[in-house]
Amino acid sequence: MNRGLSVSAILISCLSAIVIAGCAAAPELKETREIRLNKTSLVRDVTNRQTDSIPLDEASVFSPEDPQALMWVKLDDVAGRHERPVASREFEIKSSFSLKYIGQANKVKPDRHKWAVVIGIERYRKTASMQFGESDARTMRDYLTNYLGVPEENTITLINDMATKAELEGMIKDRLRGLMREGDTLYLYYAGHGIPADETPYLLPYDGDPDSPAITAYSIDALYKDLDRLPARNIFVFLDTCFSGRTGREEKETMLLAGARPGVLKVKDPLLLSKKIVAMSAAKSNQLSNYYKEEGHGLFTYYLLKGLLGDADSNGDKKIQLKELTGYVEEEVGVASRRLFGLSRQQNPVSLPKPLTDKEEAVIAEVQR
Q: Residue 70: how many CB atoms within 10 A of its CB?
């Protein structure tokens, strides 16, 4: 007889804690049985906490934002009385570097001419999940509203099932055009899967089908054309995704496209015709967009935020120019991907247009620490 047993623990504000799981069953039986432990996991969630539970989002590092930590315990032959703890696991509660500054007094004054669209898809309806996609988006939203001066009322956040194709296209093609004014600035951030099809890259919405991207996904070309029609002076796009047909936010690669082979599917970089758009993408077209498991972020997002918070300020003038930010992110992500994964999962971010020309001196952020 095999049965899963999950026990929850409340996260507390300390660096580490112990989760101890025990069980009690059939109190009328006097015999204390030998515990036969099958498997344990520390997770953020399980499919069903009553019977036949399956662990989801295994982790050893949690954030104070996580509502709970679960210890999933599977025992062999659980009938009888069990009085002793059956298992214990250590876990760490670690604040992300980016949350270290958010919420302090030195916030930037909101600027009504700034707008933000933040998209984070961690759970998909028809394909594999993307680990840390939701937390990446929420952290980026907090940074934009606190340190780039985007008013909360000008910030549109779409998480998981909110980020459908209809919602994405309707928001960018229609609603934003009615809200923004000439001279405004837009920041668009996306953390989710990307799909290549006929050498055209697509962003995969929550309800998208990897096997039918032309119908169910949002092409990069269409996205840039739609953005170019907005009445904005400057548009900054940050895409923590890849277009290799696979996902890198796992220990092992997961294929998103049936029949795809790593290193074979390649797409052409989208041509930016607009003079108002600057885009930073997490990886070259045939590379993975990796995660930084220890920090709880996508690798690109981690160094993007770290650069915006001040590490990209190479000349120490307290201003982050585009050339400083792009140079910092490209260098740090390249080095970190080799250190963490080796050459087989090398990641090199791409900035467009190339060269940045008159935009490279533009100040995208000021250091607030």
A: 24
